[in-house]
């Protein structure tokens, strides 16, 4: 019988693969940036429990970047203050990120002038926030050579910014706003609104008198009852796994029984 040419290489490949994965996991742990282990970065402020995942995106102007506590900054997230590195931007912070903010993988926050992100905001992957845009006033000059325009950006607390959304200079996004995936936001967005499209427009809004208009099409999620501990939630998840495993066993037994019946017939 012919033996496979890869008989002896398969176990080497498996060992090499495990070594690569283990090495990468180690690099991710060692390369992440925290207040306790900032590496070469000197942020103006960074709260406890905050972590910038490795590999990082472009980061510069960090003395003018303030990041709150318990934030999660995903892999390859760009955080910049100022037009370029090594500028003196004055005494005040330029980019301020509140507590409990999550910035999804590959997102960019470009703060050439003031950008403020409120606490408990969640960004999906590849969100782009910028306080600068190109100008095109002079029709005879290439747009890239014309001096850009800058306007502050403010995103209120509790917002959810969907994947691929773009927040343009001068945007004022209110509290607890949903920005749909791929939306391009400019101007002012009121509190408790849902915006979508390019340019983004309000497609749903909540007010104390009328509630959500148009009405929500899905029922509200059932909140976790008061007094439930994390240990109890963990135990419930383990029960769910056991139930799923048992259902899989029953499915296999049923399939085997059906096969026996087919064979008998």
Structural overview:
It is a single chain. By secondary structure, the chain is α/β, with parallel strands linked by helices. It folds into 2 domains: 17-220, 3 Solenoid (UDP N-Acetylglucosamine Acyltransferase, domain 1); 222-265. Helix content is 22%, strand content 25%. The protein is extended. The chain has 2 helices and 24 strands. It has a 7-stranded parallel β-sheet with strand order 1-4-7-10-15-18-21, with no helix packed on it.
Measured by DSSP, the beta-strand proportion falls in 15-25%
Query: What is the gyration radius calculated from CA atoms?
Result: 25 Å
User: What's the number of domains?
Assistant: 2
Gross morphology = extended
Number of strands: 24
Along the chain, the helix and strand elements come as HEEEEEEEEEEEEEEEEEEEEEEEEH
Distance between the termini: 39 Å
Could you report the average pLDDT, rounded to the nearest whole number? 89
SS-based class: alpha/beta
Please give the count of helices: 2
CATH class descriptor of the largest domain:
Mainly Beta
